[in-house]
């Protein structure tokens, strides 16, 4: 009787931890994916050039990348709870300070601080997923579900900014609202019982921990895949509206709402992926889905906007499974006392690719005279990603390592503190 009660209590605690993880992914997306709607407003408000305004996207991404590679070890050294509380506390404060900001410089500084805070709490959240997972497969399903909440936030953020602007409310209050939600998440983070980690002294934990993992083939394999996918996804939400600008074919309605359709498909796909992975191996899933995206991009590049207006928004459904699955397998290939550093390294590749990918596409578009040439670069990235997934399916280079991790996880399933 007592054993059953204890097991139920542990499951309940893990349920609260999952709620906390999903909430952190949600508030992160609400702010980051709304930037595309905010940029045209600040260009007019502060008389900015396109390059100046684009720092609203690049600056926090660079800050996230720096925090991931430089501070990811804190989730291993100080523990998940402390790092999550620090990150959410800073995020809440920065968001609320938007209410008193009035200049572009102040807002930019706040966004940089926000990027650092995201780097803290997201590495903590990513490592926490490992703590509550009883196998690497469950880790992947949980990661897809968490990214589903990110997808929902990515839909709500831009919609909320649009609603505020239509009602003559300043865009900066999006961040104030996010700050209030973050305060509630901070309260949840302070009250839940976290899994008790079994800590080993096998690995030295310091600020160089994430950088040391760059020598690890497993970490680099998945980080490279994630970098490629992020470039492909950023091509959609940064440059697709420009690609479809001026389209006057039979799908004008679809062109007008292409980005919203992409975000909706991405959110649906991530929840769907958590179910699909119950029936199809992750290796096969990645081949099928990356191959579909490669085909969509290739057809769009060859046939132009007439095909792109249909295929690029739908690609969100197939791309949705790729990022969380690669992220999960990359992190779960390490012991618990290295998962914070692994999460930091992967977050570095994620944010760096999100910053550099659109920049490279823009430069290529400027050189050749149209953004469609930038999409040829993105198409090349989809090809490399697809063939990487095929290699992973045929050779399965990570099978032995993930099996070892499954064995270790089964031997050290954490209890709630």
What does it look like?
The chain has 417 residues and is mostly helical. It has one domain (2-196, 203-411): MFS general substrate transporter like domains (Growth Hormone, Chain: A, Up-down Bundle). The protein is 81% helix and 0% strand. It contains 18 helices and no strands. It is globular, with a radius of gyration of 21 Å.
The whole-number mean of residue pLDDT values reads 87
Q: Distance between the terminal alpha carbons, to the nearest Å?
A: 20 Å
Q: Which quaternary structure do these chains form?
A: single chain
Described by the principal axes of the CA atoms, the overall outline is: globular
User: How many helices does DSSP assign?
Assistant: 18
CATH-assigned fold name: Growth Hormone, Chain: A
CATH architectural category: Up-down Bundle
How many E strands? Answer: 0
β content, as a range? under 5%
The level-1 CATH class: Mainly Alpha
Structurally, how many domains make up the residues?
1
Measured on Cα atoms, how large is the radius of gyration? 21 Å
| Fourth-level CATH superfamily | MFS general substrate transporter like domains
Which regions have little confidence, pLDDT < 50, spanning 5+ residues? 1-12
Described by strand count, sense and barrel closure, the largest sheet is:
none
Q: What labels would you give this structure?
A:
single chain; Growth Hormone, Chain: A; disordered N terminus; globular; 417 residues
């Amino acid at each position: 009787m007592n054993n059953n009660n204890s097991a139920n209590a542990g499951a309940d605690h893990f349920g609260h931890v999952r709620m906390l993880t999903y909430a952190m992914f949600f508030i992160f997306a609400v702010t980051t994916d709304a930037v595309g709607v905010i940029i045209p407003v600040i260009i007019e408000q502060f008389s900015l050039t396109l390059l100046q305004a684009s720092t609203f996207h690049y600056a926090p991404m660079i800050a996230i990348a720096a925090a991931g590679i430089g501070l990811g070890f804190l989730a291993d050294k100080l523990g998940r709870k402390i790092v999550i509380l620090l990150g959410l506390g800073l995020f809440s404060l920065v968001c609320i300070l938007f209410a008193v900001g009035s200049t572009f410089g102040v807002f930019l500084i706040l966004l940089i601080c926000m990027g650092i805070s995201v780097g803290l709490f997201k590495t903590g959240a990513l490592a926490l997923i490992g703590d509550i997972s009883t196998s690497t497969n469950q880790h992947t399903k949980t990661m897809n579900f968490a990214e589903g909440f990110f997808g929902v936030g990515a839909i709500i953020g831009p919609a909320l900014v649009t609603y505020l602007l239509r009602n003559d409310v300043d865009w900066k209050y999006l961040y104030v609202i996010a700050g209030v939600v973050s305060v509630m998440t901070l309260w949840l983070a302070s009250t839940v019982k976290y899994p008790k980690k079994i800590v080993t002294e096998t690995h030295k934990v310091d600020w160089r921990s994430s950088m040391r993992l760059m020598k690890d083939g497993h970490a680099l394999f998945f980080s490279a895949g994630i970098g490629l996918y992020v470039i492909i996804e950023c091509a959609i939400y940064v440059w697709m509206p420009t690609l479809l600008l001026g389209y006057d074919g039979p799908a004008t309605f679809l062109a007008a709402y292409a980005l919203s359709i992409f975000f909706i498909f991405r959110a649906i796909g991530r929840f769907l992926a958590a179910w699909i992975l119950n029936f199809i191996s992750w290796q096969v899933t990645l081949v099928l889905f990356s191959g579909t995206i490669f085909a969509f991009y290739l057809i769009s590049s060859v046939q132009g906007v007439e095909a792109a207006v249909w295929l690029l928004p739908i690609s969100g459904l197939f791309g949705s499974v790729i990022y969380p699955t690669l992220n999960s397998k990359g992190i779960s290939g390490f012991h618990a006392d290295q998962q914070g550093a692994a999460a930091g390294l992967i977050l570095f590749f994620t944010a760096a690719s999100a910053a550099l990918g659109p920049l490279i596409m823009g430069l290529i578009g400027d050189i050749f005279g149209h953004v469609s040439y930038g999409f040829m670069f993105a198409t090349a990235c989809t090809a490399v990603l697809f063939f990487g997934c095929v290699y992973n399916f045929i050779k399965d280079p990570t099978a032995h390592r993930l099996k070892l991790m499954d064995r270790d996880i089964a031997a050290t399933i954490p209890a709630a503190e």
